[in-house]
């Protein structure tokens, strides 16, 4: 499955607030699991079948096929995590959405589920053909929302987390299957 994570247009209000346009996000090669292949511009990640020759780095995920963005967010933006999320081993402290350090949306051909602290919430919205998801973050208000984006760019609300964020959040992605990919794009 291919999925695009998008930042919403900064000129449109959301929840009664104006958002700001963000610079394009890029994935952090130092966090990428070795089975993940990053594009030259670090905006697309795909899962391969052989390990990449990435140098050793303490920030690298070593078991779960995940990657974080380089830029931390404290304003408006498929899963987000605090920089301190675990990176080594198979424990829940390393899986996005399975701990108190991260929030995630699982997307599949069968539908969607929201995850936080290993609790999942099935979302009764069928998966769409566009495979695009918009993520909205209002850090100060403690709002993290996920939307399905149709081919006509209309948004369908999937789920909203309400919490108190205590540090910048980093967009993160988990790529399950060989041939699957995620691309970060910016809505215009």
UniProtKB/TrEMBL annotation:
Q: Where is this region: Disordered?
A: 1-27
Output this protein's name: B30.2/SPRY domain-containing protein
- Organism annotation: Monopterus albus
Q: What keywords does the record list, in alphabetical order?
A: Metal-binding, Zinc, Zinc-finger
Q: Which residues form the B30.2/SPRY domain?
A: 1-188
One Pfam family, short name:
PRY
tRNA processing as a keyword?
no
Write out the GO MF terms.
Answer: zinc ion binding
